[in-house]
Amino acid sequence: MDFHLYDTTLRDGTQQEGLVLTVGNKLEVARALDTFGVSFIEGGWPGAIPKDTEFFRRARHELKLRKAELVAFGATRRPDLAVHEDPQVAALLAAETSVVTLVAKADARHVNLALRTTETENLAMIRDTVRHLTREGRRVFLDAEHFFDGYRTSRGYALRVVEVAAEAGAEVVVLCDTNGGTLPDELGDILTVTATTGVRLGIHCHDDSGCAVANTLLAVDAGATHVQVTAHGYGERCGNANLFTVAANLALKKRIPVVSQDSLSEMSAVAQTIADITAAQPVRAAPYVGVAAFTHKAGLHTSAVRVDPSLYQHIDPEAVGNSMRTLISDMAGRAAIELKAKELGYDVASTSEVVSRVALRVKDMERLGYAFETAPASFELLLLDELGIKRPFEMDSWRMTISGGRVDASVRLEVEGGHGLGAGLGFTPIAALDQALRGALAPSHPDIVEWRLVSCQCWSLDGSLGKPAATRAVVTVTDGQRRVSTVGVDDDAVTASWLALQDAISLVLLTREPIAG
Amino acid sequence: MDFHLYDTTLRDGTQQEGLVLTVGNKLEVARALDTFGVSFIEGGWPGAIPKDTEFFRRARHELKLRKAELVAFGATRRPDLAVHEDPQVAALLAAETSVVTLVAKADARHVNLALRTTETENLAMIRDTVRHLTREGRRVFLDAEHFFDGYRTSRGYALRVVEVAAEAGAEVVVLCDTNGGTLPDELGDILTVTATTGVRLGIHCHDDSGCAVANTLLAVDAGATHVQVTAHGYGERCGNANLFTVAANLALKKRIPVVSQDSLSEMSAVAQTIADITAAQPVRAAPYVGVAAFTHKAGLHTSAVRVDPSLYQHIDPEAVGNSMRTLISDMAGRAAIELKAKELGYDVASTSEVVSRVALRVKDMERLGYAFETAPASFELLLLDELGIKRPFEMDSWRMTISGGRVDASVRLEVEGGHGLGAGLGFTPIAALDQALRGALAPSHPDIVEWRLVSCQCWSLDGSLGKPAATRAVVTVTDGQRRVSTVGVDDDAVTASWLALQDAISLVLLTREPIAG
């Protein structure tokens, strides 16, 4: 089936607060979207936004797309101006894309208040611009902006916009719930009526009512064969329909092959790549691709997934390149500890004494403010301790000085066969300590200088723990292969994060080669 | 209408990764939910989780609920055990709530694999437990776990569970999409059939397909009169249907008065209160209550909302206690700057030269890496500079030393009529500098010692800005009344955040009394 998975991350997605992409960033995102397998990539609005004009110029030389078509976005001609005299329309042609998507008002109220023209002139603007672009050899899609609001206020006019666009040569007319206020029942009803026009319909939803994904699916149920989405649901206000959620729902549940099975199995990695480029923190609970999407905490669920993971998972996580995780918390019993140990690669079923000691220490440490569910590596280190595995180093002493905003740190360690000394320089205490610690370990582990402190987060713990000023710190480090998170608790944030950091580095060192579990 | 808005934040919501609530936290959340006006608050699972047993014990004395009923959650009796001998059922009664919600398997596969009992025994467990609790004077709701999966695999059995529960005396049977995998079309179809049983139905949705809110609404369309939700959609994996989104959709769009108009207009504040208690960062793009829910960035949208905000907003933000914001970015023209200035309370329409200078400086500073959309207070300070308003202090000199993980900072300022000196101690450079700066300003502004540094976030900027190691820092401070965010850019993170902090404190000082704009 000719079904369009149409991505507008680079245009509508960049309306999200805090999302500021360079032209280089936009090219990188386009490559990731193409690799994933979307059909169309809307790159921006040439002529209106200088950065977007530059994007299309560079894209012509630098962007070799495997499958996707690049699309330029723009508006219908200005009121009372001949289409060939409109510089904005000329800029759309100058972008040299094979497809152009035009936005046009489908709500009479907007025509009057925002465009400040007549309903008749608005239809002429649509007709002229679509015809002009198709004559110039472009495929044209038309975004019927505010279609659903327009349908409510003046149904006949909204439908007329759809028909005029199609008659003029628009290949698809995209019904836009621009303000995101339409609920599923109403959207389904409106789609059903609009489908009787016989025009090929698309759908573009916003999430202001929390229904963007569902509305997109319901539009497909009603006959739409073109869906507009953005990576991670980026977009203005509450965002747009989420590319990843929509693609997986369509492919896995509605059996519409919008992307290949292989692409789908890389989806979580694609999502992470795009989040790395945009520097917007991905939502942990995001459907399909979120870190927590297949994470189990409840005791009953944990024991059931041990029998059969499908009992508490709607799909196999591997189908979208994600994986199942279970969490250790103060509710963890022996079964959860055995399961988590197994997940980490240790078979402790036969050493029931170890399991008992670990369970006891988990409960004790959780009471002090540790939270193992946020730091699985701390649990693994605790397990190794109880299995009698010796730590790779012991801390002898450490100190820091600061001047001019820069922190100097030095550490002295006991390591196998002697001492290790290291010094570090950073803008924060933990960055300087990290460098110093890795310096001290470098003689015996040369590649450790390449490891990286990914993040350090702190929480204040409330007074009920008996330590009014206590802080919980979770530190994440990577050796380039994997990320390891550990937790530390202490009266002050620097010591808490420093303890966590030492544990994280210890764990990576201990688990680089297989350990007898 | 007797419609149940049933909140399970304290039970199902706490299955979310990283959500670790003390009993004190749980009591606070219950108070916030009651103030908001939910009908039922599910408090936890007494007997199974020690913290929850303690919660119900303390709730009896410490929790005076205005409107909501507290609910204890638990399971049907164990297989092959008389109901009055089951300690888990006894613990439910011991919680002394007027309502008990029982979870029961509605999927034959789960009965066999997870419960390891027969389908007949499962029905007996439901019948016995519901009868036992109703005889003891409890109102009973029954969560039909995995109902939708069960309907797919063995429709007759799933429906039988619904009927048996109702016959035994359950007031509501709640259809649970426990794994969150059901799409709207299928859910609607199943609800329509199930409604023919004549049993009062509830709905409990998870967001694994991104459809939890829509599915909840579609169930209501099909006749459900009891909706289970959690604050912020907290919950295991991808979370549950979001209380705030569902409540606003039902009240404002479906005209079902689940909470009063007054409560609704406090909803954004309630959402913030609960996020403060759980310490889980609220999603900025969350429908209705998110900081970004009514935020406009696109140039065309910004000029349209100047004409009529309803052109790009699905509801009036004040109806849910939120407000409209517009963003200043490198795309901001004179119109956007005038609008943003007006939003901040300055009428600059008549001083076109100021607007031009501000527009120029915004573009210049954005090129250096500043991002005004994340720091509206920096824009306001820039505006004040161009309006000729003098800063409240100038930095003379500052220094820091660190030892044992503690940072000492000292600053010397020029202030009106002389110098200010201050010293500070903290665990991070910015915390120490913050204290030192406020100390230096305290003689002229005594209440400044109560102000607080809320957060400090840093981003590395890419090489395209010509400064390979540059950092953008955004700092937020509060004087107890409002939060103010400013941005700083420099080669190192400490200086970037220190510049932003000075600006934030300057702005609060400058704008405490009305300024002639």
TrEMBL record, chains A, B:
The keyword Cytoplasm does not apply. It holds the Pfam family LeuA_dimer. GO terms for biological process: isoleucine biosynthetic process; L-leucine biosynthetic process. SUPFAM superfamilies: 2-isopropylmalate synthase LeuA, allosteric (dimerisation) domain (SSF110921), Aldolase (SSF51569). Its EC number is 2.3.3.21. GO terms for molecular function: (R)-citramalate synthase activity; 2-isopropylmalate synthase activity. It catalyses: pyruvate + acetyl-CoA + H2O = (3R)-citramalate + CoA + H(+). Transmembrane segments: none annotated. Residues 3-268 form the Pyruvate carboxyltransferase domain. Pathway: Amino-acid biosynthesis; L-isoleucine biosynthesis; 2-oxobutanoate from pyruvate: step 1/3. It comes from the Bacteria. Keywords: Amino-acid biosynthesis, Branched-chain amino acid biosynthesis, Isoleucine biosynthesis, Transferase. InterPro entries: 2-isopropylmalate_synth_dimer, AIPM/Hcit_synth_CS, Aldolase_TIM, Citramal_synthase, LeuA/HCS_post-cat, LeuA_allosteric_dom_sf, PYR_CT. It is an enzyme of class 2 (transferase). Belongs to the alpha-IPM synthase/homocitrate synthase family. PANTHER family: (R)-CITRAMALATE SYNTHASE, ALPHA-IPM SYNTHASE/HOMOCITRATE SYNTHASE. This is Citramalate synthase. The lineage of its organism: Bacteria, Bacillati, Actinomycetota, Actinomycetes, Micromonosporales.
